[in-house]
Amino acid sequence: MADQDHDGSHIKGLVINLIHKFWPSLLNVDGFLKFFITPIVKAQKRNFSRSFFTTPEVEQFKAEHPESGWSYKYYKGTLNSCCYCCCCRY
Q1: Are 44 and 74 spatial neighbours (Cβ–Cβ below 8 Å)?
Q2: Comparing C-alpha atoms, which of 55, 62, 50, 61 is closest to residue 40?
Q3: What is the pTM of this model?
């Protein structure tokens, strides 16, 4: 598991390259490699909220919605956007 930021993307690429170099047959196993994608930003205004998974999405939304009242929460790390799943209960 890696963060959803640029560093995390590079880490995912390095791990995939490592697997491809030393255990290429594993990449042919259906379901061996999975991605758990978390939002990097969440915009909220009153009862409406929207999650964004890329920086360009956030910038486009801000350009299309210049009115005030929006609050933005920037997530850093893999568990910041967690919804009290099994890994966080203990």
Answers
A1: no
A2: 55
A3: 0.59
